[in-house]
UniProtKB/TrEMBL annotation:
UniProt subcellular location: Secreted, Cell wall
Full protein name: Uncharacterized protein LOC101495368
Lineage: Eukaryota, Viridiplantae, Streptophyta, Embryophyta, Tracheophyta
Organism whose genome encodes this protein: Cicer arietinum (Chickpea)
Family annotation (SUPFAM superfamilies): Galactose-binding domain-like
Keyword Glycoprotein recorded: yes
Length: 373
């Protein structure tokens, strides 16, 4: 019995060590443990290792919730503290990785006084020339003043450094974005099945969602990220899509879905192997997230030269309809694509962009197409 207890303790401690860097906040990822008083000059961190578990460079401030910059109140996304990155400043942390695995990084950010703020998120070292994400944060979709963002990467080595860098140069070095709650999650590559020719059609595999974050996670366009955080899918638009969870939003099926938050600038696609001349049925759910997004919505689906528009009248309280597109494959690789026809804003006077939810996307070949509608 004693040996069994020892083995159990060792097993549990091993599991904890593995989970600590593959699914959840990084050590001190919420910056709640701050520098010593001797490592601060006002709010500026003066030591490169002053923030526990992190290394910093450049003009980095340790910000307390409610702190003011002139007449502007600085918003901390979660908890009591965050960091602000000034001109060319960065924060980084070493992490253990599983070589060859895919990961997503989720973090929260708030814009301060600069209008064109961007963050460069990377993991080094890497064997790829362009394995980093440039995250534009000038478009804010929520009404809280901050957003959570996700980007993806492939681990080329067993250890790496997550680097978040403000590459902007402003007249005021303190005019930089606030960063909070940095998390890491390992992504399990989804597979096509006999029940669905699409990978991850229910969007259950995706970036880490903070348990207490009620604003979802923005997934930036594919052009900004060599390895996306939503396995199987490509965000091939100018604007981001929003990854939402059933704890804080209405989700048609399962625990995760996608909200198309920027009209025709917010598009999602997947390339699937097909047989030329064969008939396929693409089915999917279109709804709203129960987030005060009201009005007439339309999702357009494209495949094999065909398209369908699925209208949905949203009352902003959750619900969905099913859409269907039957098409004949014109090539051995068919691009499945979804976008929202219209721009929609929440009716809560926040001016926040929102849009239709898509979920439960399935693609199947039709054996006897003339017998079924």
């Amino acid at each position: 019995m004693h040996k069994l207890k020892v083995l159990l303790v060792l097993f549990l401690s091993t599991c904890h060590a593995a989970l600590s860097y593959t699914d959840g906040l990084l050590p001190n990822g919420d910056f709640e443990v701050g520098p010593k008083a001797s490592e601060l000059k006002g709010s500026v961190v003066t030591s490169h290792d002053g923030i526990p578990n992190w290394t910093i460079s450049g003009f980095v401030e340790y910000i307390k919730s409610g702190q003011k910059q002139g007449d502007m109140l600085l918003i901390v996304p979660e908890g009591a503290y965050a960091v602000r990155l000034g001109n060319e400043a960065y924060i980084k942390q070493k992490v253990k990785l599983n070589k060859g695995s895919f990961y997503s990084i989720t973090f929260s950010a708030a814009r301060t006084c600069a209008q064109e703020e961007k963050l460069n998120v990377s993991v080094v070292p890497t064997t790829e020339k362009r394995d980093y994400g440039i995250i534009p944060i000038q478009t804010m979709y929520g009404s809280n003043g901050w957003e959570s963002f996700a980007c993806g990467f492939k681990a080329d080595y067993e250890q790496g450094e997550i680097v978040i860098h403000n590459s902007g140069v402003e007249d005021d070095p303190a005019c930089g974005p606030l960063i909070d709650s940095v998390a890491l999650k390992v992504l399990n590559p989804p597979r096509r099945t006999r029940a669905n020719l699409l990978k991850n059609g229910n969007f259950e595999e995706g970036p880490y969602v903070f348990p207490n974050a009620s604003w979802g996670v923005l997934i930036p366009p594919h052009i900004e990220d060599a390895h996306g955080p939503l396995p199987g899918w490509i965000v091939e638009s100018l604007k981001a899509v929003k990854y939402i969870d059933s704890k804080h939003f209405y989700v048609p099926e399962g625990n995760r879905a996608i909200e198309l938050v920027a009209g025709k600038e917010s598009a999602l696609a997947q390339v699937v192997i097909t047989t030329i001349g064969k008939v396929y049925d693409l089915t999917f759910s279109v709804g709203d997230a129960n987030n005060s997004c009201e009005g007439s919505m339309t999702v357009e689906a494209f495949a094999g030269g065909d398209t369908v528009q699925v209208p949905y009248e949203s009352k902003g309280k959750g619900g969905f309809v099913r859409g269907k597109l039957r098409f004949t494959a014109l090539s051995t690789r068919t691009r499945i694509r979804f976008l929202s026809t219209f721009y929609t804003m929440k009716n809560d006077n926040s001016g926040s962009l929102c849009g239709p939810v898509i979920d439960d996307v399935k693609l199947l070949s039709v054996r006897y197409p003339n017998k079924h509608s």
